[in-house]
Amino acid sequence: MSANKKAADTRRVAVDSSISDDGIDPKRRRLLVGGMATTAGLGAGALGVSMLASMSPSARAKAAGAPVEADISKLAPGQLLTVEWRGKPVWIVRRTEQALGSLSSVASQLADPDSIEEQQPEYAQNESRAIKDEYLVVIGICTHLGCSPTYRPDIAASDLGSDWEGGFFCPCHGSKFDYAGRVYSGVPAPTNLEVPPYMYLDDNRIIIGEDDGVAA
């Protein structure tokens, strides 16, 4: 066999060895297999994220307005508990006898003492603006520009006047609210603080965002 023929046969063998039995270049096979493995990994990852999202605690649901439960068993008279609902602070205040007594004595100073404006469910359209007089449940956002008032139970506070009997004060623009969240006359806030829908699960638990078994 001539030297030229041997060289040609060698080249043919080299070319043929680069092709597999099924006619696919092994290098290309490796790329295809690697690509499929990557795709499978991405698919599994996406599925995992989807499953985790569906199984995760309902932070997203809470932001969307899912009801929130509050334990009031350790709330002492005069204390305020804050919980979050729909991204807003909800105050639960256990009112003292003095606080409850002030509701009628400050009525003449209020813009809407009878809660005519629809800032509360029907069952809270009373003097205490509550289901149970002892506990106030109200959204802690000023109805003027959305600031957060402060809880001011101190009577006759020097910065609020000798006739101050306690309640809530918004330092941003000076709006004042009584122990039922009712707005005083002559301040920037136009309406009473909002009472969210709520109900008692038992004597120690309140659920906010739901009443009579129906979510708001």
Write the layout of secondary structure elements.
Layout: H1 3-17, H2 26-55, H3 59-64, E1 68-71, E2 80-85, E3 88-94, H4 97-105, E4 135-139, E5 150-152, E6 167-170, E7 175-177, E8 198-202, E9 205-208, E10 210-211, E11 214-215
Low-confidence stretches: 10-20, 27-57
The biggest beta sheet is recorded as: 3 strands, antiparallel
How would you name the CATH homologous superfamily of the largest domain? Rieske [2Fe-2S] iron-sulphur domain
Question: For the residues shown, what is the average pLDDT?
Answer: 80
The number of helices is 4
> Percent of residues in beta strands?
15-25%
Spatial strand arrangement across the major sheet: 1-9-8
Quaternary arrangement of the chains shown? single chain
N/C terminus separation: 94 Å
User: Percent range for helical residues?
Assistant: 25-40%
- Class based on secondary structure composition and strand pairing: alpha+beta
CATH topology of the largest domain: Rieske Iron-sulfur Protein
Shape: globular
Our Rg estimate from Cα atoms comes to 34 Å
Task: Count up the domains.
Answer: 2
- The string of secondary-structure elements, in order, is HHHEEEHEEEEEEEE
Could you name the CATH class of the largest domain?
A: Mainly Beta
What is the level-2 CATH architecture name of the largest domain? 3-layer Sandwich
